[in-house]
């Protein structure tokens, strides 16, 4: 068992409490809104540079990407859809016990995509966002997407790419 002086423990608790308070404006909540609104500057602003992306459950190998490359990928893939809606509820934030400037946010993923004329593609699962507190606030440093199941036209993403 590691013993710490009482003052040091109180300071760590205060740091975690302050971090939790700042987390109300957590970037994970802005993630879905920014991509649905096509606010690519706002989307970029909530990410670190580089950012680790793991969409391997959807066929994209995990990689560290320059922020601009990931934003370009997201905008290119999502703007092809006529409409899209990403819902990310049930946030559960786990703060690092030793570093009040890092945390992981787990949330559900409900990502629906629609093409005029009928194509619909729905992904359900969860997100895991690793976040770090920077001088400019909390930023997402790692995004992991876990796909539990898919609904709709399995060819809709291909149709969207040609649209």
Automatic annotation (TrEMBL):
Q: Gene3D superfamilies this protein is in?
A: 3.10.450.50
Instruction: Tell me which domain of life the UniProt entry assigns to the organism this sequence originates from.
Output: Bacteria
User: InterPro entries from the entry?
Assistant: NTF2-like_dom_sf (IPR032710), SnoaL-like (IPR037401)
Q: For the SnoaL-like domain, which residue ranges apply?
A: 30-143
Natural source organism: Catenuloplanes indicus
Q: What protein is this chain from?
A: SnoaL-like domain-containing protein
**A Pfam cross-reference name:** SnoaL_4
């Amino acid at each position: 068992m590691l013993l710490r002086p009482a003052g040091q423990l109180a300071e760590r608790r205060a740091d975690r409490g302050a971090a939790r308070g700042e987390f109300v404006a957590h970037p994970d909540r802005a993630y879905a809104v920014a991509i649905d609104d096509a606010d690519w500057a706002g989307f970029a602003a909530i990410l670190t540079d580089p950012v680790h992306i793991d969409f391997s459950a959807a066929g994209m190998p995990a990689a560290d990407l320059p922020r601009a490359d990931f934003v370009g990928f997201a905008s290119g893939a999502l703007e092809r859809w006529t409409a899209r809606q990403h819902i990310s509820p049930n946030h559960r934030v786990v703060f690092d016990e030793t570093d009040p400037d890092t945390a992981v946010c787990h949330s559900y993923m409900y990502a629906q995509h629609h093409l005029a004329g009928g194509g619909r593609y729905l992904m359900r699962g969860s997100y895991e966002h690793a976040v770090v507190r920077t001088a400019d606030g909390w930023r997402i440093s790692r995004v992991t997407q876990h796909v539990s199941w898919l609904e709709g036209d399995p060819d809709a993403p291909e149709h969207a790419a040609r649209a």
